[in-house]
Design a protein that fits this description.
By secondary structure, the chain is an alpha/beta fold. It is 48% helix and 11% strand. A seven-stranded parallel beta sheet has the order 1-4-5-6-7-8-9. The chain starts with 6 loop residues before the first helix and ends with a helix. The chain binds coproporphyrinogen III. The site of coproporphyrinogen III has 22 residues, from strand 3. Belongs to the uroporphyrinogen decarboxylase family.
């Protein structure tokens, strides 16, 4: 007899889940006191490189919230860091490159990833987490950054609001831009493949900053490499999620990438997103800021997301972006319980 599927995997495969699955981007992180206690003050990249810590941090939100998925405690810059590009993650700021990518010569600083040698700790962390999880209940999600979003850190040298250097490069030297994206696509493919081969059961490609691009820019400068990542990872046979922020105008293009599930930020209601995406399960999209609202407001907003998500062929509940650092864990716990208690009822009522 085949074992029952987790609610998360059921939705990805288009079948009826026993409950609406829910997890949160950035669930393993600073909003949890048990994370802060374990994490200490070193670089997050050191914490990620220590499997005991990384596995424990991955599991903390599963224990506290009862979420249906764990996301590996890692970061989108882990592969470029591991091959020695020279990047660190500064608390409160994000990834910062010592010497940004400015010219063709910088391509030589981006060699291929050899997972067994470069990131053995990631492989070990995935194995440890899978050993602890009940596979019929909780799904382990592996992830990487999409080429555009990782490139934005390498080229800008750090977080950016305007993406001026990236846009100057992509429009000014499209050939070099496409070569850079190709190399970054290979890194993401190798990074995610290593996670799935070690036991990750689904994958998410974070194109967090894709919303900085117009649809023609996205189609020309970001979608081709993202599509190649999706297509090559298709061979792994696990569900593929594509997510970005501020992507309302890009959703229909993102749906052509080969992803199985499209993540939606909080700006587009899920029923509207579904008319743009088509026949895909969706993931999202409670505004993370609403976790700071009074409980009755938070509950009604959660129900609204569930009702609208009911219009899609499947719905994985999430926030519209990551958990904000000051979020009260009790608010997230309330959301998880509500999604589990009422998700299927509200989605069904919305469809009929
Ligand atoms: O979701 C999870 O809980 C798993 C862990 C995770 C981290 N980074 C750990 C982390 C995930 C999925 C990421 C992905 C990531 N990293 C993205 C895509 C997701 C998104 O939010 O759009 C991006 C853009 C990055 C780059 C990055 N790393 C940023 C912008 C920051 C925040 C900087 C800050 O301190 O405000 C980081 C650091 C980081 N990565 C933290 C965590 C828990 C927080 C800092 C810390 O604890 O040191």
């Amino acid at each position: 007899m085949s074992s029952p599927k987790s609610p998360f995997l059921s939705v990805c495969e288009g079948s009826q889940p026993s409950q609406t699955p829910v997890w949160f981007m950035r669930q393993a992180g600073r909003s949890l006191p048990e994370y802060r206690a374990l994490r200490g003050s070193g670089s997050i990249l050191d914490a990620i490189a220590t499997p005991e810590i990384a596995a424990e941090v991955t599991l903390q939100p599963v224990r506290r919230y009862g979420v249906d998925a764990a996301i590996l405690f890692s970061d989108i810059v882990v592969p470029v860091h591991a091959i020695g590009f020279g990047i660190d993650v500064i608390p409160g700021r994000g990834p910062v490159a010592e010497t940004p990518f400015t010219s063709r010569a910088d391509l030589t600083r981006l060699r291929p990833l050899a997972p067994e040698e470069d990131i053995p700790h990631v492989i070990e962390t995935v194995r440890r987490v899978r050993d602890e999880l009940d596979e019929n209940a909780t799904t382990l999600i592996g992830f990487a950054g999409a080429p555009f979003t990782v490139a934005s850190y390498l080229v800008e040298g750090g977080p950016s609001r305007t993406f001026t250097k990236v846009k100057a490069l992509m429009h000014g030297d499209p050939d070099l831009w496409h070569e850079l994206c190709d190399v970054l696509a290979d890194l993401s493919i190798a990074f995610i493949s290593a996670q799935v081969n070690a036991g990750a059961q689904a994958l998410q490609l974070f194109d967090s900053w894709a919303g900085a691009l117009s649809p023609p820019e996205y189609e020309r400068f970001a979608l081709p490499s993202t599509t190649r990542v999706m297509s090559e990872l298709g061979a792994l046979g696990v569900p593929r999620i594509l997510f970005g922020v501020g992507t309302g105008e890009l959703l229909s293009l993102m749906a052509t990438s080969g992803a199985d599930v499209v993540g939606v930020d909080w700006r587009v209601p899920l029923d509207v997103a579904t008319t743009r995406i088509g026949n895909f399960p969706v993931q999202g999209n409670l505004d993370p800021a609403l976790c700071f609202a009074p409980t009755d407001v938070l509950e009604e907003a959660t129900r609204d997301v569930l009702r609208r998500g009911g219009h899609a062929p499947g719905h994985i509940f999430n926030l519209g972006h990551g958990v904000l650092p000051e979020t009260d864990p009790d608010s997230l716990k309330r959301v998880v319980d509500l999604v589990h208690e009422e998700g299927q009822i509200l989605a069904k009522a919305a469809r009929s």
